Amino acid sequence: MESNSTKVAKIATKMAICDRHEEERLKKVYDEKGIKVTAVNVGGNINSSITKILESALVAAKRNGLIREEHLHEGALIGAARDAIIQIGNRASGLNVGGKIGIARGGEHISVCIFLNIGLLHLDEVVIGIGHRSLPI
User: Fold this and answer.
1) Domain 4-134: which topology?
2) Separation of alpha carbons 29 and 115, rounded Å
3) What Pfam families does its record include (predicted)?
4) Fewest CB within 10 A of the end CB: N or C in the chain?
């Protein structure tokens, strides 16, 4: 039996890896199931982009109603996003990246998934990181 936190993490991952057209369709599908989702594109040098990635995740989550503008909600989202960044940090350190952040909220569960392409000469590497928090409804 799959837990709600696992379901929400899988949905965040789908949002991070889908294209823009599919993203709009998934928003409608998950909204009907009571799950709020959003995604935002990110890119640049990973070392100088961490603050921008965190800010982008926070703004997208607020703008799409996944979290409220209050300390507890914002802290949970930033904590989950930082966990995801920590997971990708070693592989992407100092390199240029491009990709997407997917965020999903179902009830008390919120997950942030970061999916990135890493530019390394002519070799394209991919990396994924995911973080989860629980917060009051």
Assistant:
1) Hut operon positive regulatory protein HutP (3.40.1510)
2) 21
3) HutP
4) N
